[in-house]
Amino acid sequence: MDISHHYLEQGSGEVLILLHGNGEDCGYFSHQMEPFSRYYRVIAIDTRGHGQTPRGEAPFTIRQFAEDLLGFMDLQGIERADILGFSDGGNIAMVFALTHPERVCKLVLNGANLDASGVKRSVQIPIEIGYRMASLFAHKSLNSKKKAELLGLMVNDPSLKPEELALIKAPTLVIAGTRDMIKDSHTRLIAGSIAGSKLVLIEGDHFIAGKCPEEFNRAVLDFLLR
Question: Which of 95, 94, 75, 90 is nearest to 3 (CA)?
Fold first, then answer.
């Protein structure tokens, strides 16, 4: 592993890992750390090239981030953990559950998507335009290169098929906002593709963990603790 992750940690007991979304950092979960730490050793990680975790030299892809997570768990001596991922963090969690199923206890997927088709076009079109523009100037500007890499995650990744999700055996909660930027049909497709998964929709947009923390936290803890 060519990077050392920055992370926040609170609480003790079984491990719950929190994975933030694209362009964010572990601070996204400021409303989750304390409530979840009453029951878990909560670890919120800055993904490669996000927050205070360096970019490193490895590929900037969801699959690489999943391998980074494996390296982090190995380094911390964490054999298995519950994993909650938001947006791109949810995509990392899905890929991780598929590639390293023996390391996952329970899975919470918040606003995840299989590919770009799962995002509402009103949101995805500006992302695709921004990606093309940033890619044009990536060789001239470090800022453009970084922007192209970040937007590229939302254009090219995680590229999963619904039938692949049938391989996920971990108990799974799929949770999203009623006005999420992920299409409702796509969220339901993910939930329907994972055997025995639970689907919860909370009144709100993509960012329910930050904007509706009490309802979000209650739904997550109800699932994890039962």
Answer: 75
Rounded CA separation 169/202 (Å):
25
Tell me the three state secondary structure of residue 19. strand
Closest CA to 66 of 48, 42, 51: 48
Q: What is the pLDDT confidence band of residue 152, given thresholds at 50, 70 and 90?
A: confident
The model's pLDDT over 30-73, given as tens digits with 9 standing for 90+, comes to 999 999 999 999 999 999 999 999 999 999 999 999 999 999 99
Considering the domain architecture, whether residues 11 and 77 belong to the same structural domain is answered as: yes
pLDDT at 175 over 80: yes
Structural domain including 134 reads: 118-156
**Whether residue 177 sits in one domain with residue 149:** no
Q: Are 103 and 222 in contact (CB under 8 A)?
A: no
Is pLDDT of 2 > 70? Answer: yes
CATH number at residue 65: 3.40.50.1820
Residue 206 lies in a domain: yes
| Separation of alpha carbons 200 and 179, rounded Å | 13
Clarify whether residues 79 and 182 are in a common domain: yes
Is there a single domain that holds both residue 103 and residue 185?
Answer: yes
Q: Can you tell me the distance from the alpha carbon of 119 to that of 184, in angstroms, rounded to the nearest whole number?
A: 9
Helix then strand then coil, % of the chain, to nearest 5: 45, 20, 35
Tokens of 114: 């299989």
Q: Mean of the pLDDT values across residues 63-90?
A: 98
* Host H or E run for residue 190: helix 184-193
